[in-house]
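Running this now, will post back.
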Amino acid sequence: MPRGITPRRPTKTGRSEVTRPRVSRLTLISPSPPRAERKGALPGARSLAAPGRYRPTAPERVREILARLDRLYPDVTCALAHRSPWELLVATILSAQSTDVRVNMVTPELFKKYPTVQDFARLEPRELEPDIRSTGFFRNKSKSLVGAARKILEHFEGKVPDSMTGLLILPGVARKTANVVLGTWFGKAEGVVVDTHVHRISRRLELTRNHDPKKIEVDLMRLIPREKWILFAHQLIWHGRRLCVARGPKCADCLLENLCHAADKTWSTVARHSAAGA
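Update: finished.
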């Protein structure tokens, strides 16, 4: 036996020991880069959720969210087809519990049959029901549309009011509908549209913890610069249709991915927060 070499002693169990190389756990994890980054995410972008200093409503985080939304949806607007404030008002009332696609299928024939506010005002609600049945809740919507037309003729000389107070006295009009009409047609930022998409995404992004649309709107009005209110709502609505859908959001393709800690993400490079989006 060569000098200086001591043979390995057998183990007590009689089995030979096998020396295995020690491998760091870090070497076993080799994540591929996010698809969102490969598809044009901001170079070197990092989550703003570093331990000990994460504030979801911090101004720098809100600015980053807005910047990325501007990159994704620079010129989006309302998807409801319309040629006048009255047509937009009608379409928005019909869109409740329905989709813009469905409403856009219904309104061309509807406005061809009843072109003016006066035509709607002369109807009885039951006469309108067959024309809008496919949008759902057609009985209530018929009453709202006929009532709104009559109120506009009676109080506003046949013209859709261009103020929040004026719109809110119309049957079937709440803040969401009023904000759509004011922002899209009149270019007035009196509030933020909070529909189902804005509700869902603003909670996922932790811009609000509220569920009530009125409280969500107040939270967003505090965080988002007023000059962004109109565009921001449209951007979230388009984002909700294309990527941040209700079930199975397409997180791997989202430019906001590493800013989002939503509990229901389908893919993530950052920690998920149990309350985000719940």
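The CA atoms of residues 95 and 103 lie 6 Å apart. More later if anyone needs it.
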